[in-house]
Automatic annotation (TrEMBL):
Pfam families referenced in this protein's UniProt entry, alphabetically: PPTA
Native source organism of the sequence: Geotrichum candidum
PROSITE patterns referenced in this protein's UniProt entry, alphabetically: PFTA
EC number: 2.5.1.58, 2.5.1.59
Signal peptide region: none
InterPro entries membership: Prenyl_trans_a
Keyword rRNA processing assigned: no
Keyword Repeat tagged: yes
MF (Gene Ontology): CAAX-protein geranylgeranyltransferase activity; protein farnesyltransferase activity
Gene3D superfamilies per record: Protein prenylyltransferase
Keywords: Magnesium, Prenyltransferase, Repeat, Transferase
Protein name (database record): Protein farnesyltransferase/geranylgeranyltransferase type-1 subunit alpha
Source organism, top-level taxon: Eukaryota
Length: 357
């Protein structure tokens, strides 16, 4: 890539005897690697056998990863090289890409971030970020980024920069692919592993998911992350605000499973488990569902039912908890009539009602 100061071919390899891949005699399905890739991986086997941790070996891993970013053995070897080379591994200016520096300079100064880092790992983030963008659906690269996490004893500013860098890259990837599973998993990892002093405020996290949902209200990953970041001791004010937000989202798009899952999840997590809140919460949830699924309306039509089948399913849950078996059966009968493809599931749910006391 453009940021790479040197290619592995710029180094002298005369002292290394390449080790070709051994596919055995008469392989049945031989992969047709390019000559360049075969040359690079033959050198890789040789230097790995020698346990060589050098700048040329580092450059070699870079070349192979750019060709095959899913090669987890090379990622592991690269990490081992960085651990041995430590702060001499890459130029410090390569650790802070210009786009990232422009993003964080207004938040905190970066002077002194590299002081006292003798035992920490430095990676070429210019190269790594470009590679992440180019292969963002690659599991190995996200796991590798997590393994670069500084130790708790590292320079606090260096640690802060690391977590800011990871957040920056996740948001960059999600700006291009808002449903990238690996990026969302990495964001959850950051939420769990970023020290409290370096984390975004809860309001900032919620604002970020609100932004993504304003672009695509069906983005289940954004809803799931929003649910994930809510604290167990969420304040009544926060929960009231969240319920108001999801009311709006469902009213705008009633047939959206993601928003309904979030909505019901809020009630299950914060209300139904508390006896003093459960009765009122069930009544409020029922009232909201009936706006979209008026089951007592004469001449209920298919058009009304399909305005929000998720409201109907939620009503089944409510009536089960309220022990209103007849009402639950009525709703399940509607679902079986209008969504016969799930007939077996509706029958299973109806059978479960026999255990409701």
């Amino acid at each position: 890539m453009a940021s790479d100061p040197s290619d592995y071919t710029d180094f002298n390899w005369d002292d290394i005897t390449p080790v070709p891949q051994d596919d055995g005699v008469n392989p049945l399905v031989q992969i047709m690697y390019s000559d360049d890739y075969k040359q690079a991986t033959s050198l890789l086997r040789a230097v790995m056998a020698k346990h060589e941790y050098s700048p040329r070996a580092l450059a070699l891993t870079e070349d192979i990863i750019e060709t095959n970013s899913a090669h987890y053995t090379v990622w592991h070897y690269r990490l081992e090289i960085l651990k041995h080379l430590k702060i001499t591994a890459v130029p410090k200016e390569n650790w802070l890409p210009s786009a990232f520096k422009q993003n964080v300079n207004h938040e905190f100064a970066i002077d002194g971030a590299f002081d006292s880092l003798d035992d920490e790992i430095l990676e070429d983030y210019i190269w790594l970020n470009e590679t992440t963008e180019a292969t963002a659906k690659n599991y190995q690269i996200w796991h590798y980024r997590q393994l670069l996490k500084p130790s708790p004893k590292a320079n606090p500013l260096f640690r802060k920069l690391y977590f800011a860098m990871e957040r920056f890259v996740v948001e960059l990837v999600l700006s291009n692919d808002a449903k990238n599973y690996h990026a969302w998993s990495h964001l959850q990892w950051l939420a769990k592993n970023t020290p409290p002093e370096f984390r975004l405020q809860l309001d900032e996290e919620i604002e970020y998911t609100t932004f993504l949902l304003s672009q695509d209200v069906y983005n289940n990953s954004a809803w799931a992350y929003r649910y994930f970041i809510l604290p167990e001791a969420a304040s009544p004010e926060l929960l009231e605000r969240e319920i108001g937000y999801v009311h709006f989202a469902i009213t705008e798009v009633p047939q959206n499973e993601a928003s309904w899952n979030y909505f019901v999840g809020l009630y299950e997590r914060f209300y139904f488990s508390q006896a003093d809140k459960s009765t009122d919460a069930l009544a409020a949830l029922e009232e909201f569902c009936l706006r979209f699924a008026p089951i007592d309306q004469p001449g209920l039509t298919e058009e009304v039912v399909f305005r929000s089948t998720h409201a109907l399913e939620t009503l089944v849950t409510i009536y089960e908890k309220q022990k209103k078996v007849d009402k639950a059966r009525k709703v399940l009968g509607l679902l079986e009539t209008y969504i016969p493809i799930r007939k077996g599931y509706w029958a299973y749910k109806t059978k479960q009602l026999e255990a409701v006391n």
